[in-house]
């Protein structure tokens, strides 16, 4: 699976957009970019995923660069409940048959 | 709503006790489930892949005789920590996905916090 690189921590003001970057320069053509988050003492929560097109759902937007070497997760109007560790993960070729490799993620802190 | 249920959420027991953790997929069948472990201030680490009807696949460094996995049905996988010791204290999390394609997210349980005294 391709390795990902994320900043260890970020701050964002409540109500503003939170933009979380992820670098995945060794991603393969058939690998998806997934984002999960983990709120303290809970299991991870799926947020969004994409292959090469930008994606949006009720939680967030995912912007993937044209060369697919990096992506940005956007939380459009961050709230205090969005404080969590955010993980960017590239899904391997085995797809649903493979466990996930978690990096250290980005600890996003939403400031009131 | 939750699609993966994990039980119990917290266990405190004495050293030497065996502890069983259940992971259930709700409203879908999961031929494959995954077990992770997370130590304080660290990321999740994959321990093993639980396969319905066959033996689990363990990651390097994970003792299969210590962490017994049973996946007897398409909706239930269990992890038994045998003869638990204080160093086994950790946050154990299971996951499953609804399909085998590479465009399927994993759904996680809420985790089990195991404390061995």
Q: How large, in whole angstroms, is the Cα Rg of chain A?
A: 13 Å
Largest sheet of chain B: 7 strands, mixed
User: If helices are DSSP runs of H or I spanning 4 or more residues, what is the number of helices of chain A?
Assistant: 0
- Structural class of chain B, please? mainly beta
Number of strands of chain B: 11
Helix content bin of chain A: under 10%
Mean pLDDT of chain B: 91
**What is the percentage of strand-forming residues of chain A?**
35-45%
What oligomerization state is this entry in? heterodimer
Q: Which segments of chain A are poorly predicted (pLDDT under 50) over 5 or more consecutive residues?
A: none
- Report the sheet-strand fraction of chain B: over 45%
In helices, the fraction of residues of chain B equals: under 10%
Largest interface: A-B, 30 and 30 residues
Helices and strands of chain B, in order, run as EEEEEEEEEEE
Structural class of chain A: mainly beta
* Number of helices, counting only DSSP H or I runs of 4 residues or more of chain B: 0
Low-confidence stretches of chain B: none
Write structural notes for this entry.
The complex is a heterodimer of chains A (112) and B (117). Chain A contains no helices and nine strands. In chain A, the strands form two sheets. A five-stranded mixed beta sheet of chain A has the order 1-9-8-3-4, with no helix packed on it. Chain A has a four-stranded antiparallel beta sheet with strand order 2-7-6-5, with no helix packed on it. The model of chain A has no long low-confidence stretch (mean pLDDT 92). Chain A is mainly beta and 112 residues long. Chain B is mainly β and 117 residues long. Helix content of chain B is 0%, strand content 51%. Chain B has strands spanning 4-7, 10-13, 19-25, 32-38, 45-51, 57-58, 67-73, 76-81, 90-97, 106-108, 112-116. In chain B, the strands form two sheets. In chain B, strands 2, 4, 5, 6, 9, 10 and 11 form a seven-stranded mixed beta sheet that branches. In chain B, strands 1-3-8-7 form a four-stranded antiparallel beta sheet, with no helix packed on it. In chain B, a hairpin with an 8-residue loop joins strand 9 (90-97) and strand 10 (106-108). Chain B starts with a strand and ends with a strand. The model of chain B has no long low-confidence stretch (mean pLDDT 91). Chains A and B meet through strand 3 and strand 4 of A and strand 4, strand 5, strand 9 and strand 10 of B.
């Amino acid at each position: 699976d391709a390795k990902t690189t994320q900043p260890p921590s970020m701050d964002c003001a409540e109500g503003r957009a939170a933009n979380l970057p992820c670098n995945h320069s060794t991603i393969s053509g058939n690998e998806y970019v997934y984002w999960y988050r983990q709120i303290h003492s809970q299991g991870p929560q799926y947020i969004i995923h994409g292959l090469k097109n930008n994606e949006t759902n009720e939680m967030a937007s995912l912007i993937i660069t044209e060369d697919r070497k990096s992506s940005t997760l956007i939380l459009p109007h961050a709230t205090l409940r969005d404080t969590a560790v955010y993980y960017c993960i590239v899904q391997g070729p085995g797809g649903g048959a493979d466990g996930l490799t978690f990096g250290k993620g980005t600890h996003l802190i939403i400031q009131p | 709503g939750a699609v993966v249920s994990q039980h119990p959420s917290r266990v405190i027991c004495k050293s030497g006790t065996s502890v069983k953790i259940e992971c259930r997929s709700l409203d879908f069948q999961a031929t494959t489930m995954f077990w992770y472990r997370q130590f304080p201030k660290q990321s999740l680490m994959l321990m093993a892949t639980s396969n319905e009807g066959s033996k689990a696949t363990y990651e390097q460094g994970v003792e299969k005789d210590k962490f017994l996995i049973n996946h007897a049905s398409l909706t239930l996988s269990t992890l038994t920590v045998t003869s638990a010791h204080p160093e086994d204290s950790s946050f154990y999390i299971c996951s499953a996905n609804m399909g085998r394609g590479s465009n399927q997210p994993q759904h996680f349980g809420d985790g089990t916090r195991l404390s061995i005294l």
